[in-house]
Amino acid sequence: MCGTPARCVAPLAALFEMLKGQCDGISIADATAIAVCDNRRIARHRVSADSARRGKTSMGWFYGFKLHAIINSRGELIRLRLTAGNVDDRKPMPDLCQGLFGQLFADKGYLAQWLTETLDRQNLQLITPFKKNMKPAPRTGFEKAILRRRSLIETVFDELKNLCQIKHTRHRSFFNFVVNLMAGIVAYCLSDNKPTLNLTRVNTLVKA
């Protein structure tokens, strides 16, 4: 466990802290699954057996971890947390959101009275779509427009997985997995062509 991959984790984490974006008042949160093996090989998987867990997303069951992320309006990663695959998306939010301000946009999976109240005490307004059995609350045109474009974070996840290759199932050790993950995240932070919300265009559409 004291080999080269283990020694790389701390420097890569420090480099991410230097390169990550800053909160600009408009943040988007979501989590994505990172499978460590095919579901048919769960019983034989040993590399991450002590920490990986079975979880479920809209795409089905997986075995591995979840990467919880918050981005700003410029598509920059500003907060990250890796958890086991069975962790509720809402659980890491209070800690992840420490120091953030303004509005946090997320999907229906983040709806919870306790989370809304906790973030409100941290001066952060949680904004999500409403469920069918909920009484709608007033939303400004700007808030509705950002909610429609919260899929921006899915584009970020797509680039992390397909361009920066943070996800594959051929790791020989847990530290190798973490180093590959952090290296991909750093590569994304260094990218010059991140997807953005383009708030100028959003404001133009709202006013129109």
Task: Give a brief rundown of this model.
The chain crosses the membrane at residues 174-191. Helix content is 36%, strand content 21%. It is of the alpha/beta class and 208 residues long.
Can you characterise this structure?
- With 208 residues, the chain is of the alpha/beta class.
- It has a single domain (11-207), classed as Nucleotidyltransferase, domain 5 (2-Layer Sandwich), CATH 3.30.420.
- Helices cover 36% and strands 21% of the residues.
- It has helices spanning 4-19, 93-96, 113-121, 141-148, 152-162, 174-190, 199-207, and strands spanning 26-35, 53-57, 60-72, 77-84, 102-105, 124-127.
- Strands 1, 2, 3, 4, 5 and 6 form a six-stranded mixed β-sheet that branches.
- Pfam families: DDE_Tnp_1_3.
- Residues 20-173 form the Transposase DDE domain.
- Keywords: Membrane, Transmembrane, Transmembrane helix.
List the helices and strands and how they pair.
Elements: H1 4-19, E1 26-35, E2 53-57, E3 60-72, E4 77-84, H2 93-96, E5 102-105, H3 113-121, E6 124-127, H4 141-148, H5 152-162, H6 174-190, H7 199-207
Parallel strand pairs: 1-5, 5-6
Antiparallel strand pairs: 1-3, 2-3, 3-4
Helix pairs in contact: 1-6, 4-7
